[in-house]
Structures are given as structure tokens and as C-alpha cells.
Amino acid sequence: MGFVCRSREGFRSLLSCLLMVSFLLIIRAAFIPQNAQGSLHWGEAKKEQIRVRLVALSWSHPRSSFFASEEIFVAEKELTPGESRLVKLVYGFLPYQPRLSESGFDYDIVHELRAVRDPSCDETLFQMTTDDQDGLPDDLKYSADAPVSDLERRHSPLPCYLTTADDYKKPLHSRATAN
Predict the structure, then answer these.
(1) Of 26, 41, 56, 175, which has the fewest CB atoms closer than 10 Å, so is most exposed?
(2) pLDDT of 40-62, one tens digit each?
(3) What DSSP string describes 76-99?
(4) Strand positions, DSSP E, the chain
């Protein structure tokens, strides 16, 4: 700005000059748009369409009348037809929405949903089944017809996917009807 304060008349003049400069800076900040809002724009995490089979329920919040709840599953994510891998699936739902475990907790049912990959919540099966308070293992609740023996030997972290009831599409088919 081209404004210059000259103090020939002493303290009062200097004080009024400082007040005027402060006022002008406040006006400038309030009414002139700022172009530098940040050059990094972190978009929303990209949701991907995935198909999963529920293998086991690891943990489930009690249903609340007011707050969101979640269920945590060990699931098989379909990579290609005939090829899959185990993942951790965190399913969030509101009080008026159904639990995923209520809409077909059966290994033969393929669930189609949109989910976000979140590396910050990757866990091993041991971590998923160990109680945080006492360190004792909790049992998984296996879905009907799920392969059980294969799970106990897994030591690598399972990729974590986050989804909600709003992103749940539908149960597609069962193995019996897929052929």
C-alpha cells in the first residue's frame, strides 16, 4: 500500500496513524479474496466397487439408538473370478440401517459394495482377535460354510476397507446359483 504515517505532532498522531493502518488491513483481509488457499487439494478417498464373501465377524458394536455403529469382518475380496484374498472389512451403519450380518451372514453369498482402502487400519488376524483391554484372544464368529482352518495361520496384515450401509449394493448370488 502507498500509505505513509508521519509523526510530526507526537504520540496522538502516531496512534491515530496506527489505528488507520490497522483498519485498512482489516478491510483488506475481509473484502479482498485471498488466492493462496493452499496448493494441495486432498480429494475424498476414492471408493472402489468390490465383491466380498463374509468369512467371520470379528467385532460388532451393540446397536445404539442415537449413534453410528460398526461391524468388523474378515472377508474374502474377489480379485478376479476364482481368485480372492482375505481383507478386513469395517462396515458402518446408523440406527435405522440394517447390519451387514443381518443381510446374509453366509459364506456362499457374494456382497457387492463400494469401499475405501484405508492402510491405517490394516491388522493381522491376531490383532483383530485380541481384546485391547485384557490382551486375551476373542473368538471369531464364522459365517455358515466358511473355511475355518486356513485363517489360523495368517500372520501378515489384512488390507482394510471401510464401507457404510449407504455404499452397500446387494447380495449378488450364492455359489450354488453361480454355476
Answers:
(1) 41
(2) 555 567 899 999 999 999 988 77
(3) EEEEETTEEEEEEEEEEE-TTSPP
(4) 47-60, 69-80, 83-93, 109-117, 141-142, 160-164, 168-174
Domains in the chain: boundaries: 49-178
Using 50, 70 and 90 to split pLDDT, how confident is the model at 179?
A: very low
Please give the Cα distance from 99 to 161 (Å, whole number).
Answer: 16
Q: Which residue spans within 12-108 are E strands per DSSP? A: 47-60, 69-80, 83-93
SS3 of residue 176 by DSSP: helix
CA torsion 92→97→102→106, rounded to 10°? Answer: -50
- This prediction has a pTM of 0.69
Pull the grid cell for residue 54: 463374509
Residue type at 101 in one-letter notation: S
